[in-house]
Specification:
The complex is a heterodimer of chains A (217) and B (468).
Chain A lengths: L5 E8 L7 H4 L19 H4 L31 E3 L12 H9 L3 E4 L4 H9 L3 E4 L2 H13 L4 E5 L4 E3 L5 E3 L4 H9 L3 H6 L2 H14 L11
Parallel strand pairs in A: 1-2, 2-3, 3-4
Antiparallel strand pairs in A: 1-5, 5-6, 6-7
Chain B lengths: L5 H7 L2 E4 L4 E5 L2 E4 L5 H10 L9 E3 L17 H17 L2 E2 L10 H8 L7 E4 L13 E4 L2 H10 L1 E5 L2 E8 L8 H12 L7 E6 L1 H4 L3 H9 L8 E3 L4 H7 L8 H11 L12 E6 L6 E3 L7 E3 L13 H14 L14 E4 L7 H11 L10 E4 L4 H9 L2 H8 L2 E2 L20 E4 L14 E4 L2 H10 L10
The chains are: A alpha/beta (217), B alpha/beta (468).
The structure holds iron/sulfur cluster (SF4).
Chain lengths: 217, 468
Amino acid sequence: MEPFQTLTGLVAPLDRANVDTDAIIPKQFLKSIRRTGFGPYLFDAWRYLDHGEPGMDCAGRPRNPDFVLNQPRYRGASILLARDNFGCGSSREHAVWALTDYGFRVVIAPTFADIFYNNAFKNGLLALTLPAQTVDRLFRETQAQEGYRLTVDLRAQTAATPGGEAIAFEIDAFRRRRLLEGLDEIGLTLQHAGAIRDYERRRRAQAPWLFPDAPER
Amino acid sequence: MAGRTLYDKLWDDHVVRAEADGTALIYIDRHLVHEVTSPQAFEGLRLAGRRPWRPGAALAVPDHNVPTTARAQGIADPVSRVQVEALDANCAAFGITEFDMCDPRQGIVHVVGPEQGLTLPGMTVVCGDSHTSTHGAVGALAFGIGTSEVEHVLATQCLVLKKSRNFRVRIEGACAPGVTAKDLALALIGAIGTAGATGHTVEFAGAAVRALSVEGRMTLCNMAIEAGARAGLVAVDERTVEYLRGRPLAPAGALWERAVQAWGELHSDADAVFDREVALDAATLAPQVTWGTSPEMVVPVDGCVPDPAAEADPVRREDMRRALRYMALEPGMPIIEIRPDKVFIGSCTNSRIEDLRAAAAVVRGRRVAAGIRQALVVPGSGLVKRQAEAEGLDRVFVAAGFEWREPGCSMCLGMNPDRLAPGERCASTSNRNFEGRQGPGGRTHLVSPAMAAAAAVHGRFVDVRELG
Ligand code: SF4
């Protein structure tokens, strides 16, 4: 996984609550068996005026001029500003792959849905929670000031505004370290293979019906 | 020491290692796999040169992409076909049991697990699918995961997790006839919102929950995710034990007796403390119908489409306006004047035998109304289908003008050919009314099976309590 340390990026404001993963990447694109190539279809039903299908070349598709990511001032944005309960609904990790493939490295919202939040960190996407009032203010500032950028420093746990104000954020220590170092989580878990085997032995003695595939010897 | 909740007990039983920062390595007993969220996980294993830790703990079944018409001809859509074939190939290569598309036991993964007795009380159960919460109905800790976690479970049989908070939803009182588990779920989501239980595991308790069949409890736990909870739970009781007795993969003989005895502990202690509690009175609830594009946008069938002007919060007001535009509805319109174009009875929420019986009871002797373009019944599994046919339910549906299909996710999300056309309105027994969920531009109203059946035969929503 690509580590995340610090990023200065253009902020795009997506001003609606409860953005679900069906909206982030519609189902027809989930038929892909790869992890890449989802970026052009991010928010497909909102971004384009026609109906998208996998494999389509998006360059010539009619765009919805009202959708935020289609406005020239937000081209190249790498920080998405969102509202409450971002990423609710389906567990599809394709939603995170579409965001990162598009170029987002940070999503800021007052709250995230649990599964999306988890998926984000597995893919080097920093899901950053800030209090609703702070998010409100960032919406106002982003909309008021073209070219509004934030500098997100994961080590220092701050997001710095163009005015130089450093907004502190909270993040779980384990997730932070994993992201900073870009750690392979499976490799980390496998370092505890002995503990997993001990657990299985113990548990099988207690509740053998849980192990019909590996009966007690 | 205070007593423990059911969730506390399930968690404690599965801790392999606890870290000082509160994360824990949690052992996973059962892993359900489907074609959409697994290919990249298998690819990850392959790239890293890893093998599954315990292939026998997994079961795979294709469900999202499969056609619900004649199976033997295979899948017409080449992209869907590649995905289903990738599952077949990955299961063969990694030694994982699969009920393939033509297996009589194939069906929606969350219907198949409990039906086979693969999901048992006291287990941890995961699947790369948010509706894994369904399995909590039998007292298992069951939750959806992303594809990276699917790979993690395949490789290690564990997940790195932080414990969520305890939330108890008490539903007391008795449901009026015609008010079902689906209505309880929708009413709860309407009350607490789609993020109401984020960060929590919800235990459903109270007289109305105890009175539900195990299948009804599955409907309730299935929708826990729509309230933001990754997992829903119901304590084990006699009904759970009776439901599981004799299932193909449930233990038998002396092992069964031992298991049942152990399951006796699977309830919250009387003095357990919950971080949050909410109470609902089932007796006051009417059948529910969603009017918007989020499951929390729901009202009783005898109500009206709400007016955004009455909403104080500006973000919510704008969301309501957007939803009404998308749904082509006007504030103040009575729900019973809404006329669906299509009716869908199916999905992991409501496609089990009791759901089909409830729908058939409404349909029997009636005809699908002239204004309905298509009415689909999609059983949750091949075995549900077989049972329904043995009871003659298929004939009731077909005689009324419904289409009787092969099992799968179908029009719940329209990854297969079953979907809404732009602008079409559907009475659906599924779980999500998001924009475009059932087909681009499609408009979904979530309801119970009896309510969907009644909408089909009347051509508009009706209050099933008045049908008698
Ligand atoms: S029936 Fe619908 S909600 Fe259930 S697993 Fe299939 S697609 Fe998901």
